Amino acid sequence: MPENEFKRVNRSAELMLANDDGTKIYRIISTTFIPKPEPYTFFYFYQGKLIRFIKSDRIDDYKFIR
Predict the structure, then answer these.
(1) What top-level branch of life does the organism fall under (predicted)?
(2) What distance in Å separates the CA atoms of residue 13 and residue 20, rounded to the nearest whole number?
(3) Residue 44: left if φ>0, alpha if ψ -120 to 50, beta else—which one?
(4) pTM for the whole structure
C-alpha cells in the first residue's frame, strides 16, 4: 500500500518517526468499549511503501522494533 493512500484512509494515524533514509512509522490507537490486548498498531513505510505492521500493547514499541 502506498503511504499517501494509507494516510487518506487512516486519518487518525500519527506520524511517530521520520528518518532521512525514507523510513516513516505511523501509529494507530484502537479505541473501543471492549479493551483489546494490543490496542496499538505500528505501520512501517520505506520510501513511500508499506513494508510491515506490528500490533503491540505498549505505546512506544516503535522505538524498539526494527
Answers:
(1) Bacteria
(2) 20
(3) beta
(4) 0.84
